[in-house]
Each structure stands twice: as structure tokens, then as C-alpha cells.
Amino acid sequence: MKRAGALVLLVVMCAGCASSAAGPKAAPSAKKACTPTQLAGWKKLARRVHAPVYCPTWLPDPLDGVIGSRWNNIDAVSRDRSYLESWVWQETGPGAAGGELHVNLRGYPARTRIPKCVDADTAKRTLIPCFSDPHGVVRVGDIAATVYTVNQDADQWHVLYAWRHGGSLYTISEHVAPPLNYTKTRAYLDRILRGLVLVGA
């Protein structure tokens, strides 16, 4: 009986050890979310354009994704409801290493075709696609973004990602300029894309 009791005790102890080694179940990963300060501006924009918009949960420091912040240099909506939100940081002046971080987020509600822009490289006001020279597709969740490397207007000298959702076209772009090279710019855009949150009107 003593041997049987010892054996039962040993089995219980081992089961406890196995349970302890396994540890508690891993907590589900936190959902990405924009801050209340960010959401306030993006919800207001969604109501203004009568369409969903994408709020960025991450932009390169010190850019903050807050509409109306000190870094938000463009907050524009056109008559056709297309919008441009831009954030920029620049370091210039004596003794500065020099550099720029510039990110654009655009939306074209109820339009999926690539818009036209004036060709800045010609004297004539020739209209050309605002983004061109595709270089593959980046997929994140339900987003399949085409990468464009020749872009116009506020996206000139930027790498741009464009995708379609719910009958509308959306883009994010970043300027290829020090302290970023092309590879680092792509890495930043990938991270921005992974952090986008769709905000309804």
C-alpha cells in the first residue's frame, strides 16, 4: 500500500511539473489600434469624405499620424472627396546632419483608377499617371498593395503603395531621402502598412 501510495504521489507530482513547465497559455496578441487623439481626426475626415479612411498606428518618429499636429503639413480634401494627409520632419541649418522624413496618406473615394497628374518634366501640361513603374505587390491581411517607384505631385521622389478597398483607391508613400535609402524606405512602408486601421465614416 505504501508503495502504491508513493507511486500515485509521484504521478501527481510529475503531472504538476509538466503543467508548470508548459506555463500559462499565451495571451492573445494585442490588437493594433490608433490612439484616441489620432482617431478623432481620422473619424472627422471619414465623415468629411463620406468614406472609410486608414488611420496609421505607426509612423517613423517623430511623425505621429495625428491630423492637425505640428508635423501634419498638409490636410486637404478636394471637391471629388479625394484627400491628402501629409506629415514631414526636416533637419536643416548650420551644424545639422540634414535629413527628412515625409509620409503621405491618400484616399480616392468611389474611384479605383489611377488618377492623372501634370508631368513636371515637360514644358507642356501633359497628363500622365500620378504613379507608375510598378515593382511587385505587398500583401498584409486583406490589403494587396502594388509598389510604385515613379510618382508625381506630392508623391514625387517617393516610393508609393496603392491598393483598392470597397470601391476606393488608397495610397501611402514615403520620400526616399537621407536618413533613408530605398531599402529602409520600403521597410518603413511595410511597417506602416501593417499598422493601418480602417476607420468608418
Describe this protein's structure.
The chain has helices at 2-22, 36-49, 182-194, and strands at residues 53-56, 72-77, 83-91, 99-108, 116-118, 127-129, 131-140, 143-151, 158-165, 168-175, 196-199. It has one domain (33-89, 101-199). The N and C termini lie far apart (73 Å). The longest helix is centred in the first third of the chain and has 21 residues, at 2-22. A 7-stranded antiparallel β-sheet has the order 2-3-4-10-9-8-7, with helices on one face. Mean pLDDT is 85; it is low at 1-30. The chain is globular, with a radius of gyration of 24 Å. The chain is an alpha+beta fold and 201 residues long. A hairpin with a 2-residue loop joins strand 7 and strand 8.
Shape: globular
Structural class: alpha+beta
Helicity level, as a percent range? 10-25%
Q: What is the β-strand count?
A: 11
Instruction: Tell me the β content.
Output: 35-45%
Secondary-structure element string: HHEEEEEEEEEEHE
Largest sheet: 7 strands, antiparallel
Measure the end-to-end span: 73 Å
For the record, the count of structural domains works out to 1
Overall residue-averaged pLDDT value: 85
Tell me the number of helical segments per DSSP (H or I, 4 or more residues long).
3
Rg calculated over all Cα atoms:
24 Å
pLDDT < 50 runs, ≥5 residues: 1-30
| Major sheet strand order | 2-3-4-10-9-8-7
What descriptors fit this protein?
201 residues; seven-stranded antiparallel beta sheet; alpha+beta; 11 strands; 37% strand; two-stranded antiparallel sheet; globular; 3 helices
